[in-house]
Design a protein that fits this description.
mainly alpha, rod-shaped, F1FO ATP Synthase
Length: 76
């Protein structure tokens, strides 16, 4: 029973970290959109950068939640 529980924890933690792949893609999309938006309208640099930082922070929060879940699964 002990081995099954430990292996289930490891599998669960690994599955919880799958969310990090989506976060990596999301951050790339956010900054790619920033570059495209800036190249189309350089006058909106400050506003676009503010939106990009907000998008980055929200996307990074998802990564932290995924890591937190993985660590909770592993160490509880």
């Amino acid at each position: 029973m002990e081995v099954a529980l430990k292996s289930a924890k490891l599998i669960g933690a690994g599955l919880a970290t799958i969310g990090l792949t989506g976060v990596g893609a999301g951050i790339g999309i956010v900054f790619g959109a920033l570059i495209i938006g800036f190249s189309r309208n350089p006058g909106l640099k400050q506003q676009l950068f503010g939106y990009a930082i907000l998008g980055f922070a929200l996307t990074e929060a998802i990564a932290l939640f995924a890591l937190m879940m993985a660590f909770l699964i592993l160490f509880t």
